[in-house]
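Data availability excerpt. The first of two example chains:
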Amino acid sequence: MVRTIYSLSHSEEEKRREEKRREEKRERREEKRREEKRREEKRREEKRREEKRREEKRREEKRFHLEGTLNDHLVPLPDQI
């Protein structure tokens, strides 16, 4: 009888350990997913920043080109000097 009680108790302990292992495994998977989401968000954010830099550079080049075109008439020609 004592042996049966011990077996049941031992069995319950094993079940608890197994459940704890499963829970820890689940937590590790969730942490990996969260970490992957963070990395993905960082990549997206970096892409957005890079696109903003490119857009700003295009605007700057366009503005420079337009200013140069608008100011061409202000540059004295060689025969005007």
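And the second chain:
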Amino acid sequence: MKNFILIISLVFLSVWGYAQNQIQWMSWEEMLKAQEKQPKKVFVDVYTDWCGWCKRMDAHTFTHPEVIKLMNKYFYAVKFNAEGDDIIVHKGKTYTNPHSFPGKRDTHQFAKYLLNGQLSYPTIVMLSENLDSYGPIPGYRKPADLIPMLKFIGEEKFKTQSWEEYISQYNQ
């Protein structure tokens, strides 16, 4: 019996440890449900299936231990396929991809909204607890580039200093 309990404990701890070593990605709907229980800022990774730089961010940036720690601490992390067919409801408006069908790639209305019509992948969009955008951040980001951004928004440094002031102090 003791061995059984020990084995179950080890399995639980290894699964729990693995979960802590990756970003807890969720869908838009899952994020909305989580937001109702415990509001947090939202990190949206806007990507496409064909985007090589998106895959590189997945493999190199989103696996970095400090990025994982900050993302899970301060944000609900949402992956959003800019050419997907999810139905998204945001602030009372419904967004779809009306021209989505197999073999045809078209941009989702919500991607156009989040990116202010400037379609570039990957693009990061961070949102407040009220789901207001801090603005899109296009392009591939290395961990060293993303970490200060996550801290600036996550720790709400923007309330007391500009990005230029913050990054200047951060780099010293």
